[in-house]
Amino acid sequence: MVGLGPKPPLPRKGTGTLDNLPKDLKKEIEHLERLFTVDGAKLKEITDHFVNELEKGLSVQGGSIPMNPTWVMSFPDGNETGTYLALDMGGTNLRVCQVTLTETKSEFDIIQSKYRMPEELKTGDAEELWEYIADCLMQFIETHHGDPTKLDKLPLGFTFSYPATQNYIDEGILQRWTKGFDIAGVEGHNVVPMFEAALQRRGVPIKLTALINDTTGTLIASAYTDPKMRIGCIFGTGCNAAYMENCGSIPKLAHMNLPPDMPMAINCEWGAFDNEHKVLPRTPYDVIIDKDSPRPGQQSFEKMVAGLYLGEIFRLVLVDLHDNQEIKIFAGQDIAKLRKAYSLDSSFLSAIEEDPFENLSETADLFQSKLGLKPTAPELELIRRTAELIGTRAARLSACGVAAISKKKGYKECHVGADGSVFNKYPNFKARGAQALREILDWPEKADPKEDDPIEILAAEDGSGVGAALIAALTMQRIKQGNMHGILHPENFKTTEPLPA
């Protein structure tokens, strides 16, 4: 079946329904629906192009999607044990975890602390960034282990959630900053020596064992508790996916003569899909976001589906409607707060979509408290529909990546582990994505609505904490077995023992 895209929500009863809108506002809503609705045929076209781009990324020539080999070369079997540290450097927070893989199969205990990532560090000096991270690690160790001078070096899995080339599992050459970071002198360089130099200066007793991407961690952590897991995804501040590929299907690694059937986790970095603007249905608002971003022309897919951008797309639409003299939304009101770039995030849209009241009173309160604006009843309906359109488009486009990996690998049935604030918190994101998968992959209608989909996207295990610890454990296991393919940088062949459980 070829779907016709998401259906408009049923109008709510009472005043201010879509049917009762003034003609000019109704006309604008219809225009926005044409801009943001992606039908089933278009989803299929995007998915087919996505499959080709995944293949291109694995080739010697390469493509926009980096398809980075990670040197994570097996799924966990659930019998891994030991205690490991994990560091997660995300777009918003820095998180330090201590993960104990227990004797009970596929079970773990975790202690963790979060530290806010100061905004000024994102565009500041590289040394200041690494010093801040070292300070957070030292604080965690002092809290949970006492005097750091009396400790042997602790093994650490470092979740570095940015596109990086890895020739070894303890190396990461940053390809480009994402998620709002733009620090000079790091792109094109291995981040590990910078990180370790800061640890050494601060006297932090840590030895990095594995550098991982949060998406690879999500794949491995989810597979630890669910044997049907085949793909890991992040739908949060950014977006990405990882899956296991056979080394024989990675032409750019052919020179290494790896066994063709040896598995290799691939960190797709699919936020860069369609940087050439061949297939994604971009609106004028998407063009503005790209033009005004720190990296114009990059991360095209991410800029349409990731949490960092959804609120900004919404804000640009409202500013445009206010400035259009025929519309005059928020007429006579000061929209100075609304004009501030990135002042609204995806949680703002979530709150609008979750408003349960027919008169959208919670949305009205939100606009008053956050923006100092008093929308009319018809304007509230336009606001609600705009949020729905942007959120629905993001979910449906996200499904194209999942469908593309599934088609490439021939997966007819599997689980997909998804993490990130948009997947976990945005209303209806999962249901909208599932409907899009159904349209792309031509699944028959379910006899029972409660029946599971053949390919189901589920909430993931903690990839950046548990996944990092598991990958550290798997790495040390391989070192002990003498399987050194792509393991450690030649300077780091000394094995680091895990903490006693």
Automatic annotation (TrEMBL):
Stored InterPro entries: ATPase_NBD, Hexokinase, Hexokinase_BS, Hexokinase_C, Hexokinase_N
Keywords: ATP-binding, Glycolysis, Kinase, Nucleotide-binding, Transferase
Biased amino acid composition, Pro residues: 1-11
Annotated pathway: Carbohydrate degradation; glycolysis; D-glyceraldehyde 3-phosphate and glycerone phosphate from D-glucose: step 1/4; Carbohydrate metabolism; hexose metabolism
Catalyzed chemical reaction(s): a D-hexose + ATP = a D-hexose 6-phosphate + ADP + H(+); D-fructose + ATP = D-fructose 6-phosphate + ADP + H(+)
Domain Hexokinase N-terminal residues, every copy: 29-224
Region (Disordered): 1-22
All residue ranges annotated as the Hexokinase C-terminal domain in the record: 230-474
Main enzyme class: transferase
A single Gene Ontology CC term: mitochondrion
CDD domains on file: ASKHA_NBD_HK1-2_fungi
Superkingdom of this protein's organism: Eukaryota
Keyword check for tRNA-binding: no
GO molecular function, one term: glucokinase activity
Biological-process GO terms, alphabetical: glucose metabolic process; glycolytic process; intracellular glucose homeostasis; mannose metabolic process
EC number: 2.7.1.-
Keyword match Kinase: yes
PANTHER family the record matches: HEXOKINASE (PTHR19443), HEXOKINASE TYPE 1-RELATED (PTHR19443:SF16)
Family: Belongs to the hexokinase family.
UniProt name for this protein: Phosphotransferase
Organism: Sordaria brevicollis
